[in-house]
Amino acid sequence: MMNNKLTVVVIAKNEEKQITACLKSAVFADEIVFIDSGSTDNTVNIAKKCGAKVFEVKFSNFSDLRNIGREKAVNSWIFYLDADEEITKELKAEILKTIRDVNAKNCYLIKRSNYYLGRKWPVDDTVEKLFRKEYLKNWYGEVHESPTVIGEKGELINPLIHRTHNNLEEMLNNTIVWSDFEAKARFEANHPKITWWRIFRMMLTSFWDSYVRQKGWTVGTVGLIESMYQSFSTFVTYAKLWEMQNNL
Length: 248
Description:
By secondary structure, the chain is α/β, with parallel strands linked by helices.
């Protein structure tokens, strides 16, 4: 039976430092489904104290985790919220208005105001976050997961807050984890053989995109650090891909 109730799905692992702010921003929802993929810190306890329905699962890939969240959600609408994101009061009001609209579309894109090292980044991105459950068929892709949705898509006006890359230690730890997924995906897609100039070119492209195209230079030292980090992350990914291609 169709209703206009909302489930917020949160996927997390070892996010005790920022999960409280995330979950508090979602307490207006009729249900919070929390998918934990092996936390060893206090993340699960915090989620339970915040009233979330916690499901502890073994990690396989990010699409599978999102699909599990879809299966566990009991309401007609689903909003996917990452552990480093927060729903503002303005966005909350817009979400509630949207899901009560009889002419609402089946999927909505949301802008994200990104904060790197505590500073607002000049460029926002846009992600698919709000879905009518029955028209969200599944998520696919091991790394950059994407939804399969039937019907029209719309876009909300008010942005999410996205607090990522909070410190250098976190950034480097993320690179170690994510570069494995990225390198593996390229290897399995039969990426062309890696040479020194290709690594160098991709590093320059990453730096240019972050520092120039996205105007990272306008936020001073943070912009330079973030852009150099993006270049470094690219180097690690392609160096790992080179290792795979050479059976090292």
